């Protein structure tokens, strides 16, 4: 906002004194998981969000069933619009790259429905606790490891 815009907002008498300023939305990336079967579904999903105010870029990845919206948007409004316009079940992207997680094959983290290279995000403390191995487990697994030749003479 420039100085003239600021002064005109201060001295504006046309709307009354109870004028509320709108909060600006942040520039962000919204990732949504939605089932995309064919090119028609891809086109429908793309058109559902391209017309939204504040959207600068839309990427649809049909192989991963992923929609990425970039711009000055509210994530909950994008999700609601996709659900309403397409009639499909949609949710926020629940996956992270598997190399980000310490133990990607732990019971609460691994998801066979996830796209290749992704696992479910583990923000739950019980799931992340299951993913950590105890010190005795680590000791036994490294004792018979081929990477540690001095650990066990029997092998």
UniProtKB/TrEMBL annotation:
Database matches in CDD domains: HMA
Compartment(s) of residence: Membrane
Record key words, sorted: Cadmium, Lipoprotein, Membrane, Metal-binding, Methylation, Prenylation
Gene Ontology molecular function, alphabetical: metal ion binding
GO CC terms, sorted: membrane
GO aspect biological process, one term: response to stress
One Pfam assignment: HMA
Main location group: membrane
InterPro entries: HMA_dom (IPR006121), HMA_dom_sf (IPR036163)
Sequence ranges assigned to domain HMA in this UniProt record: 27-91
Record family assignment: Belongs to the HIPP family.
Protein name, as recorded: HMA domain-containing protein
